[in-house]
Amino acid sequence: MGSHKTGVEGDGLGDWRLQAATRLAADLPAAYVGGPAHKAGTALILTMMADAPGHARLAFPTPSAPALALSAGFRSAELAAQLWPQVTFSQTLTPEGPGEAVAAEHVGTLFAYFEACIAAANSSFQAIEAFANETIARLLTGTMELPRRNGPELMTAEQIERTVATDEKLGTVLPKLLNLAPIKGQAEWELFKKLKDVRDASTHFKSGDQYPSNGTASNGSLYYLLLNTDPRQYPVAAVRVISRLLAGAGQPRWLTHLAEKHAVTTTGRAK
Q1: DSSP single-letter state for residue 86
Q2: Which residue numbers in the chain have pLDDT < 70?
């Protein structure tokens, strides 16, 4: 993963994880007596306020939820990528013939690798879900008709956020809102499905994923996936899925930054 300074980091607008950052187009007078006035060109960011222990009415810049989650995904993936080469193996015999075993002194390292992989996958999926919910809330001002078990139903943005599965949001809701061709069948959809497999298996941790009945992790089970997937693919998949949904539209600063920093090819254009 790259470590060079990106264009976003040099644009003078502040941290790349900000939810919204721009510059004033004209002078802005004080909004209240004694309040600050600002000149055209001043960086403008979205802020929010919350109480915290010892800090009443604490104001702070609003972070982008997808950016936080995706940053956590990349950090966990990088940690996993560093841990895996540290695991050593020894030759052993299995009921099916010669095999390998993890050296006893590196079992803890292997488990730390699993932890980092699971964190990377879950954070990356969370980034996609946060992006989908934010976009739906921002663009859907009325209702949208969606097929339900008992027939078509008009749903508000809040209802969609709360009750519709992420794959339906990506496959149906967002393409309608963004006036895009469906992403189902596209390369990005396959990346999403692979990410979702790991996220679902690690979120629900069914008994077959915890320990298979025959003692061998089958193709598609959680530990099989963790051992056979480069963990860096999880956040990269999230970047590519979100970028694909923004094809033809401007990319947010956080997505532009991560795509450049980690050399991810995207389909959207920067704004």
Answers
A1: G
A2: 1-4, 248, 267-271
Q: How far is CA 264 from CA 81, 238, 241, 243, in A?
A: 17, 10, 11, 10
How far from chain centre, in Å, is Cα 98? 40
Condensed to tens digits (0 to 9), the pLDDT of residues 56-113 reads: 999 999 999 999 999 999 999 999 999 999 999 999 988 889 999 999 999 999 999 9
What pLDDT digit, counting tens, does each position of 214-233 carry? Answer: 889 888 899 999 999 999 99
The pLDDT, as a whole number, for residue 271 is 46
Q: What is the DSSP string of 104-161?
A: GGGHHHHHHHHHHHHHHHHHHHHHHHHHHHHHHHHH-SSEEEEEETTEEEEEEHHHHH
90 touches 106 (CB < 8 A): no
Q: How far apart are CA 263 and CA 259, in angstroms?
A: 6
C-alpha torsion 30→34→36→38, nearest 10:
40
Would you list the domain boundaries of the chain?
64-270
Cα torsion angle, 161, 69, 234, 243, sign: positive
Contact by Cβ (8 Å): 61, 46 = yes
N-term to C-term CA, the chain: 23
Cβ(169)–Cβ(105) below 8 Å: no
Residue 269 bridge partners (DSSP): 250
CA quadruple 84, 89, 92, 98: dihedral sign: positive
Tokens of 104: 């006893």
Full-prediction pTM beyond 0.70?
Answer: yes
